[in-house]
UniProtKB/TrEMBL annotation:
<feature type="active site" description="Charge relay system">
    <location>
        <position position="572"/>
    </location>
</feature>
<keyword id="KW-0812">Transmembrane</keyword>
<feature type="transmembrane region" description="Helical">
    <location>
        <begin position="123"/>
        <end position="142"/>
    </location>
</feature>
<feature type="transmembrane region" description="Helical">
    <location>
        <begin position="265"/>
        <end position="285"/>
    </location>
</feature>
<feature type="active site" description="Charge relay system">
    <location>
        <position position="748"/>
    </location>
</feature>
<keyword id="KW-0378">Hydrolase</keyword>
<dbReference type="InterPro" id="IPR023828">
    <property type="entry name" value="Peptidase_S8_Ser-AS"/>
</dbReference>
<feature type="transmembrane region" description="Helical">
    <location>
        <begin position="174"/>
        <end position="191"/>
    </location>
</feature>
<feature type="region of interest" description="Disordered">
    <location>
        <begin position="535"/>
        <end position="575"/>
    </location>
</feature>
<keyword id="KW-1133">Transmembrane helix</keyword>
<feature type="transmembrane region" description="Helical">
    <location>
        <begin position="240"/>
        <end position="259"/>
    </location>
</feature>
<feature type="region of interest" description="Disordered">
    <location>
        <begin position="145"/>
        <end position="167"/>
    </location>
</feature>
<feature type="transmembrane region" description="Helical">
    <location>
        <begin position="364"/>
        <end position="384"/>
    </location>
</feature>
<dbReference type="Pfam" id="PF00082">
    <property type="entry name" value="Peptidase_S8"/>
</dbReference>
<dbReference type="InterPro" id="IPR051048">
    <property type="entry name" value="Peptidase_S8/S53_subtilisin"/>
</dbReference>
<feature type="compositionally biased region" description="Pro residues">
    <location>
        <begin position="1"/>
        <end position="17"/>
    </location>
</feature>
<comment type="similarity">
    <text>Belongs to the peptidase S8 family.</text>
</comment>
């Protein structure tokens, strides 16, 4: 510093001349930095992993998790940082301590915001923007060391003689434009591999990213860099290398708190190297005659944060999608490319801007670089990216639901069932049309694109937190749920294929149920019964399924992609449907027919799309038809197999689908549903529709006839005994898309087999069609004991429901 300039307040005097300074403060700072990096990255990974475990296991989300982890990080990082800030005499070490301490406190405040559920992402982004802005304002107003301008080396123009410093007044300086160019370069992989959410979500992400940039600028302003740009010719290398390392740790802590669980992980990889870029910008700015100021930090960090905040949905950075090349894969690709770009920028900016006897960057070159990269971002988005807005929607559930009491049973069998279904359809549609009119008109006037439903009296619509609050306050509205939508992928996920040979006879699970004996001894295969499958789809060309498709223009519905013929890329739906009605020893009822609907896309669904399929099953309609006016209740399938559940992460609450299953039951359509794979915990049957009393809920056993470890246990909410039955669900061989076969585990595999048994019973005695109470009683009365689960829940018959379904005994009883 200049001879007549006092040392920055708070840092103390430099070491006495001629006396070497102690290396221990530097060693302590290095150790503290390593500790900070390892701890921050580890706890962020642990927090995300725990949340994913909760999702996979079906456990309740613990809102205290992230506040607790953020507090632990702040304490464990902040204490050594505080010691570095107060004890050493070195200005650089003390600046390091203050920077890390401020970032640790910022992480505490920002990370705690993750207590908000992921389903309320827009609210989280608004809270992030407000909190980061407030922290930035507080940081800039706290007392601290004043920024100093270091002396210029021999031959370098002084600040007053540098034309760049004065000519750039009122317009972006070259170093700011270079920072913008670097930030745009970091956006490129996210624009290529990611996709935006809705308009409001994107705007809030931009505000949040801007606020994070402001916070980073407050922590890494000129007073932070001043000690690293001190005396002597080596200051350029020291600014970039030492200052860049310290700044990188600050950035690591800031981005660790930026983004909902999952969205912060990419930033931990590619944002810290930007500390070296900022160091190089400091050198370049001071060569131009003045400190860099806050603008380069704001732009660089803000643009870097915008990528994962806006172009990756944290709900989709999930283990639920990690088995294929889905969002987690592409986020990892974008992060890896971003890290490579950040390293190249760090090296390139360091070499070009901080080399010995280097010149200050020219504004024209910097502006041209920024303009070219901005154009490149736009071109990549339109040509190679996923342009457009892909936001979530809202499901508005109305207070008044249709009154389905007093529907006459009518004549036994199919004729009576069809009459009941027609009456249920009439009442549901009438109630929806009478009660939705005013709300639909208001939503249409606001251009919110309402989609009405009648199976549950509800409307799906566009809208964010403000629209949700407005809707929740309307007298006719019971509650408003978030209806999830998946963002598009840069390339289709590969279709699941089977790698097992086809069956040579009835599979072990078919023999365990006695279904093969039903075919051979009782001459019953399920003929005359229709099974409805709501799942990921069905490969209608598979040899074991092609001949069983009912056909016509009302036997297939795909609300996701609007395909016109049965198809399936996920494989789950093909596997489950074939277990119910597949031929060649795969399915329980190979003579039954099937109809299908796609309610899962890439293993995720939404309340509205689950309703789409259940509504289609009550009253099928032709492609492009209106469910309200074109429904054909007389074409409803007899029994529905549902190997899915709607957890809170998809937007459902406990009662979201309750009116739907009640209406199907009133219509005489049997709903069979998977218990879930969140065992062995007791009381783990929680996701709709499995806990509902009018649903036939199915658990899984293995070859040893014992309940599998993964099968969810009862009791359900209210103490109801669930599951109702168990069936083979471990290593079950069935069909996969493309003509192959695979053996899969899960209550998903057990569920369609019970639906197949019902098809056999109703085929053997058509008078049972629609008689749900008698059908349930026969299934339970003829079930065989299942092996007790060696768990705290105790024997399966005592605490998790009835026994193992027996197809042979059930069909014989049905004929009596």
């Amino acid at each position: 510093m200049l001879a007549d300039t006092p040392p920055p307040p708070g840092y103390g005097p430099p070491p006495a001349a001629g006396r070497p300074s102690s290396p221990w403060p530097v060693v302590a700072a290095a150790l503290a930095g390593g500790w900070t990096v390892v701890l921050a990255v580890l706890l962020q990974a642990v927090g995300w992993s725990v949340e994913q475990l909760q999702v996979a296991a079906g456990w309740d989300r613990q809102a205290w998790l992230w506040p607790a982890l953020s507090l632990a990080t702040a304490l464990l990082v902040g204490l050594p940082a505080l010691l570095l800030a107060l004890l050493p005499r070195s200005p650089r070490v003390r600046a390091t301590g203050w920077g890390w301490l401020g970032a640790a406190l910022a992480l505490l405040a920002l990370g705690s915001l993750r207590a908000l559920p992921q389903v309320h992402h827009e609210l989280y982004l608004a809270a992030l923007a407000a909190t980061a802005t407030l922290l930035a304002l507080l940081t800039t107003r706290l007392p601290g060391p004043a920024a100093t301008t270091p002396p210029q080396p021999t031959g370098t123009p002084t600040a007053t003689a540098t034309p760049t410093a004065t000519a750039s007044a009122g317009r972006p300086r070259a170093v700011t434009l270079l920072a913008i160019a670097a930030g745009l370069a970091l956006l490129l992989p996210w624009v290529r591999f990611g996709a935006l959410g809705g308009l409001l979500e994107t705007a809030l992400a931009a505000l949040a990213a801007t606020a994070v940039g402001l916070l980073a600028a407050a922590l890494l302003g000129d007073r932070f860099w001043s000690p690293f740009t001190g005396d002597g010719p080596p200051r350029a290398a020291r600014t970039v290398l030492v200052g860049g390392l310290v700044a990188g740790v600050v950035l690591l802590l800031v981005v660790a708190g930026t983004g909902h669980s999952g969205a912060q992980l990419p930033g931990l990889l590619f944002v810290p190297p930007l500390g070296f870029v900022l160091g190089a910008c400091q050198v370049a700015a001071r060569r131009a005659g003045a400190p860099a100021g806050a603008a380069p930090v704001r732009w660089l960090v803000g643009l870097a944060a915008f990528g994962p905040l806006a172009l990756a949905d944290p709900e989709e950075i999930s283990v639920l999608l990690a088995t294929t090349r889905d969002v987690p894969y592409w986020v990892a690709v974008a992060s890896g490319v971003g890290f490579a770009v950040a390293v190249v920028l760090a090296i390139g900016y360091g070499v070009l801007l901080a080399r010995p006897r280097g010149r200050a960057p020219r504004r024209l070159v910097a502006a041209s670089s920024a303009a070219v990269l901005l154009l490149t971002v736009g071109v990549v988005d339109v040509v190679a990216g996923q342009p457009g807005l892909h936001g979530e929607r809202l499901l508005v559930v109305l207070r008044e639901q249709a009154d389905l009491t007093g529907i006459p049973a009518g004549t036994p069998g199919r004729a009576g069932r069809e009459a009941r279904t027609a009456e249920v359809y009439r009442r549901l549609v009438s109630t929806a049309e009478r009660t939705q009119g005013a709300l639909r008109r208001d939503l249409t006037r606001l251009h919110l694109d309402p989609t009405p439903y009648y199976l549950v009296n509800a409307i799906e619509t566009d809208g964010g937190p403000a629209v949700r609050a407005w809707l929740s306050g309307r007298p006719e509205v019971a509650r408003v749920l978030v209806s999830q939508r998946l963002r598009p992928l840069p390339a289709p996920a590969p279709a699941s294929r089977g790698d097992r040979p086809g069956p040579t006879g009835p599979e072990w699970n078919i023999r365990m149920l006695g279904a093969d004996r039903v075919w051979s001894e009782l001459d019953v295969t399920g003929a005359g019964v229709v099974v409805g499958s709501s799942d990921s789809g069905v490969d209608g060309t598979h040899p074991t399924l092609a001949a069983n498709f009912r056909g016509g223009d009302d036997s297939w519905y795909d609300p996701w992609d609007h395909t016109r013929a049965p198809t399936d890329s996920g494989g789950h739906g093909t596997h489950t449907t074939a277990s119910a009605v597949g031929r060649d020893g795969i399915g329980v009822a190979p003579g039954a027919q099937w109809v299908g609907c796609v309610n899962l896309d890439r293993n995720l669904g939404s309340p509205a799309h689950y309703l789409d399929c259940l509504q289609f099953m009550l009253a099928p309609f032709p492609a492009g038809g209106d469910p309200f006016t074109d429904g054909r209740p007389e074409r409803a399938p007899d029994v529905l197999t549902n190997s899915w559940g709607c957890p809170p992460v998809e937007g459902c609450d406990a009662g979201a689908l309750r009116p739907a299953t009640a209406a199907l039951t009133a219509a005489g359509i049997l709903v069979v549903a998977a218990a879930g794979n969140t065992g062995p915990d007791c009381g783990s049957i929680v996701d709709p529709p499995a806990p509902y009393p009018d649903v036939l809920t199915v658990g899984a056993v293995g070859r040893d006839r014992r309940v599998t470890e993964f099968s969810s246990r009862g009791p359900a909410a209210g103490g109801a005994a669930k599951p109702d039955l168990v069936a083979p669900g471990a290593e079950v061989l069935s069909a996969m898309p493309g003509g192959g076969y695979a053996a899969l585990d899960g209550t998903s595999m057990a569920t369609p087999q019970v639906a197949g048994v019902v098809a056999l019973m109703w085929s053997a005695n058509p008078a049972l069609v629609g008689d749900l109470d008698r059908t349930r009683n026969i299934l339970r009365d003829t079930a065989q004991p299942a092996g007790p689960a060696d768990l705290s829940c105790g024997p399966v018959a005592a605490s998790t429901g009835a026994g193992l379904v027996d197809a042979y005994a059930a069909v014989r009883a049905a004929r009596r």
